[in-house]
């Protein structure tokens, strides 16, 4: 006589194929690369999800299933740019530098690398500034930029290096304004400056505006 327990359905084990996971990662990266190329050449508004799918050689529903929206793809690309720029390593270097002007110089060097390496993506985002999804991403990015500046300004204030009468909040606001992506393009595209010129100018103006040594 068989054991009644053997007749009961056994629970299925949760199992995910490593190969399937690898393919999903590869597909995600291919979609992001295709989108970046199209945003740069066609513009954000003109690029459709169907165009991205065709360039990535996947079905359109796959793009939606993977990201959900164009804005999410932009977020993925921006995250990749920050990783390429080695944001965490730069943050550690900036915090470890005791000299106020050299600290701000390192910050300017980081922004130059971040903006220059992703010039095509940043330009597409600026050109699509009226798109609600892009506006949401820009607002998020601006909040992140301010939050990233706080420990830098705090370290200057703790070293008694801030300009006389300048509060920490005011210093963060000034640094945030001068760090605007739009200023990078005004300098490099509008004025025809090199990336080196932009970096040197930003380091100089930050020192003048924020520190008693500037």
Question: Helix fraction?
Answer: over 70%
Question: What structural class should be given to the helix and strand makeup?
Answer: mainly alpha
Overall outline = elongated
Helix count equals: 12
Parts with pLDDT < 50 across at least 5 consecutive residues: none
Main sheet attributes: strand count, strand direction, barrel closure: none
Quickly count the domains.
2
Strand content: under 5%
Instruction: Write down how many β-strands occur, each being a DSSP E stretch of 2 or more residues.
Output: 0
SSE string: HHHHHHHHHHHH
Give a short summary of the structure:
By secondary structure, the protein is mostly helical. The protein has helices at 4-7, 18-42, 49-56, 60-66, 70-84, 87-96, 100-117, 119-127, 132-158, 168-178, 181-190, 195-210.
Descriptive labels:
214 residues; mainly alpha; Arc Repressor Mutant, subunit A; 12 helices; 0% strand; elongated
Description:
The chain is elongated. α6 (87-96) runs antiparallel to α7 (100-117) and α10 (168-178) packs antiparallel against α12 (195-210). It folds into two domains: 18-68, Homeodomain-like (Arc Repressor Mutant, subunit A, Orthogonal Bundle); 85-210, no CATH class. The longest helix is centred in the last third of the chain and has 27 residues, at 132-158. The chain is an all-alpha fold. The protein contains twelve helices and no strands.
